[in-house]
What does this fold into?
Amino acid sequence: MRVFLIGYMASGKSTAAKKLAKKLGLGAVDLDSEIEQTAGKSIPEIFKTEGEKAFRKREQDELRKWLQKDDFVMACGGGTPCFFESMDEMNGVGTTVYLQMTPKAVVDRVMSSKEERPILKGLSEEKMLKKVDFQIEKREPFYSRAKITVNGVNLDVDALAEMIQ
It folds into this structure.
């Protein structure tokens, strides 16, 4: 079984992947962590030194490695489904789950988190909300192709596990 959690940044994909994997008896994988391990540097460093295009290539390469494996729940990066043919590839081999969030809920989580988010760095809350709203709207055509869509704010992992099984 392969499960791919998708959604915008700060939608809870990494946390949900760990909980869901435990519930389903599978391994948990964080795609961003896998990229960092392979690259030997953090995602913000990759964006800063190599740019987004190089990051997206690394992301695609890492995802393709995992498409050949079995029995995992993967927390994908926020943009993973939106580049190359990633959404088709994930849907072709497993179950995709969209953790849907409102832009306001995303901004609230980002503002209360210590985690660095390169594409929102240095923005005021108002500008952040506009950018997040714009990006979610742009990515929605990809996210909406998930096999399952759930509310990411109050995610019920037990109910999600039942939907997947």
About this structure: The helical segments are 13-24, 31-39, 43-50, 52-67, 86-93, 103-112, 125-143, 157-164. Residues 8 and 136 are 7 Å apart (CA to CA). The chain has one domain: 2-164. The two ends are 9 Å apart (CA to CA).
